[in-house]
Amino acid sequence: MRKELRKFRSAATSLQWHVMGDEAIYAIVPEFQAEAIIKGIGYKSTSMLLVKTLLATGELHLEDEVCPDCGRIVTKEEIRKQEIEKVQTILTQKFDPVDVIREVTMPLVKAWLASIECYMVEQGYRLPKWERPRWLK
Q1: Which residues of 38-67 are buried (b: 16+ CB within 10 A; e: fewer)?
Q2: For 30-47, how does the pLDDT look when each residue is reduced to its tens digit (9 = 90+)?
Q3: What's the pTM value of the predicted model, to 2 decimals?
Q4: Are 121 and 127 in contact (CB under 8 A)?
Q5: φ, ψ (nearest 5 deg) of residue 104
Q6: Dihedral sign for Cα atoms in the order 6, 8, 10, 13
Q7: Segments making up each domain of the chain, as ranges
């Protein structure tokens, strides 16, 4: 749990600066925003986080399947990668690179942090000290 907590705290700390930097760059050079959309910059990590959240909440179930066309066994990992690609395509169509972080990534990171911290406290573990970023206060 401490590794997960450390990972999400690190992401939370860097997200605010990432958004501010992207907004500044895109305001100065709008072509960079178009390039970010075309290349999918920022969407992959959000897609992975969203799929992880859906799996953790039980809204998405992955099981090995047999491909109806070729008869090959498709593993859970391959299905997970396909789901991430689908989510990435949807996010690219619906959000610009800054909005995907602000409206999807930040709320997911906040929810994961709250969940992990609550679980650790309920289990009697002491939470390591951490200076919360402004967007989480």
Answers
A1: eeeebbbebbbbbbebeeeeeebebeeeee
A2: 888 888 888 877 788 899
A3: 0.80
A4: yes
A5: -120, -55
A6: negative
A7: 2-136
